[in-house]
Amino acid sequence: MSMTRRWIAPAVAAGAILATAATPAQAAGLAARAGYSVTIGARSSTPGYLHGRTYGYALVLYRDRAFSTARISGTVTGAQAGDVVGLLAEPFGRHSFYAAGHTVTLGRNGSVRYAFTVRPARATRYEVRVRTGATLDATSPSATVYVIPGGSGTFPAKKCRHGACTYSYTVTVVLPAPVYRTESAKHEYLYLAQWQAGRHPARWYYRSAASSASKPVRVNGHEYKQKLTWRFSLSRGTQFAIAACSKDTEATDGMGLPGHHFCGLRRLTIRQATGYLG
Fold first, then answer.
1. Which entry of 21, 31, 60, 84 is 20 to 30 Å from 212 by CA?
2. Considering the domain boundaries, does residue 66 fall inside one?
């Protein structure tokens, strides 16, 4: 999982969203008739804390109801009524675009907005093409939507005896079948922050060596359960907060965001721990 787990700390999870701009090479390769141009952008369709930006990337959760969709939109300039805007997709693992089955027929001339709703399973590049009949008028740059696993969690269980506490969740992780082996084998990093009540929250979340994640239990080909347990001492008047993550492997399996985003560090700032981790 590449972000602070929503079912662990829903008030602090973060999310997504604008597509990356076209590279000069992409821009030079656009096919356009005189007078035509087309823009493209990607944005999460989700409400709440996933509606925003995560390092400039569009991000959705796999099979997580409203959190699993993104909006591909833009403007066709020089459009003629009757022109058709078609969406193309290139999911992770493919090396060419194919028709995604979404089209819209423009109803007027001039500059016209278009929009499509998509639900990718893994990182997917999108582009649109504008046609007048069989004639290709313009091709947009590409925009990518990234995906992280979805899931849910049980109500937390907390037990304390003589100041020694355990705090645990059983989480269910839902993900595409082709990435099951890679994602379920990842190491889970568990973090803990503690501070005295009435004071400002702790400055740091520290990786908790005493905490652990159980071995994943397979439910089916795209789902597993796992128990996350934090162990720590808790004196009277002490408050605590937790976070969990695994490192992104987007380049390997198309899940998560490109690059490295703090997960695995010895300690995290509050801003890091309550944002995207991967």
1. 60
2. yes
